[in-house]
């Protein structure tokens, strides 16, 4: 456990202690329920030091779960443009990120979430609070339908990541990204904006 | 390593030694390249003993990878019936199996495949040789298109299993199976029999 006094900013032990505590608190209480104050108290440091090292609660969350990137930096390019092409933009961006160096961190994160219930909680919370909320708000989806639509999208994209980058199932693993965009974008488009009356009327 | 002599059939050490060797040989050479003879030699036993314990090579493969069930026992109900409803039958069967006690073994298998490259190889080989070959043959799919179509199906179904049973993303994790059949069957149907000209012409 890190001690509060006598450490200069940037001390690696203190940083690491804050991150360990942050993972616990985020996993236990969820992103919304966690506070910088509680994390600081758990790590035995001043809240100001947590802000100093990690910035906002969002930024601390991204660092704590080793997120390969900040969704807020890339989501605008998906959300901007014709709504009936959002499936295409989303699958294209998804593949571009996973095919890039950030994909290595993505593989590590996904592997960890599959084998570890705590990381799974963090990842769930990450997807819901950092990605889906923004998408739902931006597209003004029916709030009664948005959560299931979003998790259907997640089911296809998580499956794409697992089969292409982890299980490496051929020929999907070596198919050019743009071919996969053509194949998978209609699925994502239907989940986001398609008529799912028969799904929601059941 | 098991010894050949002085063991009666059913000896747990010998059985386990055969299974350990079988996993190695299947992972190294693939299902098609592996032989009962090579596995028996690796385990230091007579091939007849391998057959005696485990039956055919297919059955040994299923046992070696802790497959929750034999695809040949359940695939006929997917393959029999109108071809334009195969998506529905496949997603329904998939969810029925994963929602059953066999689902627990499925979760263990998928977790292991995601964290372990050798199990991933076994699972890939399992999917290709035990499931996809049968489906492709039965539906008489264009051999040039069948492998990508099949791996697109795998991407959606693996993603469904991971998000519903391992990450437990809500509301998908607690949505009734028949609602998910309605939502996801059209995706699978398109991947299997839909017009993917724009995908294959790229």
From TrEMBL, chains A, B:
Domain annotation HTH tetR-type: ranges: 12-72
UniProt keyword Methyltransferase, yes or no: no
Record-linked Pfam families: TetR_C_16, TetR_N
Keywords: DNA-binding
DNA-binding region: 35-54
InterPro entries: Homeodomain-like_sf (IPR009057), HTH-type_TetR-like_transc_reg (IPR050109), HTH_TetR (IPR001647), Tet_transcr_reg_TetR-rel_C_sf (IPR036271), TetR_C_16 (IPR041678)
Keyword DNA-binding: yes
Official protein name in the record: TetR family transcriptional regulator
Organism, scientific name: Micromonospora sonneratiae
